[in-house]
Design a protein that fits this description.
mainly beta, two-stranded antiparallel ribbon, six-stranded antiparallel β-sheet, single chain, 2 helices, elongated
Length: 211
């Protein structure tokens, strides 16, 4: 007497389950989330994607990395490499512009340099600055010299928060899983020095300073 009704209920449950349609990819979403590539290309300054243009993109979940000092040459090098035996006195220096750099920590085929990303150190510091200075220097025979400036950069890594004016796949805000690293120059922290090397080498090779 009890088994009959239970069997009917079981059949009804099975029929209901067979008639229920779940979207491909799971119950919660019928399609995949926007890719990091599409999100980044939707940012202001990005190349554009299948998504609408985002209102703004912001660095979030920020991790402060150790500062990085990067050296650049100011002006052209001066050489005393003509075989003479006397030192020469020259004026070294000139000007150079240093700017914020952004590196995408994944290979997504995105031109990250053109994308405008707020937040982090870039909101409180200038993203580029021009350095100018000269100095008198004596170059000995067989030597060459160039004046260099080493600017301190604030290094920060984080994800990108992408804000849309309209819902994209049900949300106004999306976050990238991929991280970026921004290096923002601090124009108040610059070191100057003469970089001197032997004749026959590249006088503008600053790899020993930027290692």
């Amino acid at each position: 007497m009890i088994a009959g009704p239970a069997f009917v209920i079981s059949l009804m449950g099975s029929a209901l389950a067979l008639s229920t349609h779940y979207p491909r990819g799971g119950i919660l979403s019928a399609r995949q989330n926007p890719s990091d590539q599409d999100l980044l290309n939707a940012c202001p300054g990005g190349s554009g994607s299948s998504l609408e243009r985002a209102d703004r993109c912001t660095l979030v979940h920020i991790v402060n990395n150790p500062d990085v000092r990067k050296f650049v040459a100011l002006g052209s090098p001066e050489l005393n490499c003509d075989g003479g035996s006397d030192p020469i006195t020259v004026t070294l220096g000139g000007s150079s512009t240093v700017s914020e750099t952004t590196t995408l920590n994944a290979d997504l085929g995105v031109d990250i340099e053109g994308i405008k990303i707020g937040g982090g150190a870039s909101d409180s510091k200038t993203t580029s600055s021009t350095i100018s200075k000269t100095v008198s220097f004596q170059v000995n025979p067989g030597r060459q010299a160039v004046y260099v400036a080493g600017t301190n950069f604030k290094s920060q890594t984080g994800n990108i928060q992408v804000n849309f004016g309209d819902r994209v796949d049900g949300h106004f805000i999306w976050f990238t899983g991929t991280t970026i690293t921004q290096l923002t120059p601090d124009p108040s922290d610059v070191q100057f020095e003469v970089h001197e090397t032997a004749c026959g080498t590249d006088p503008t090779d600053l790899s020993s300073l930027n290692s």
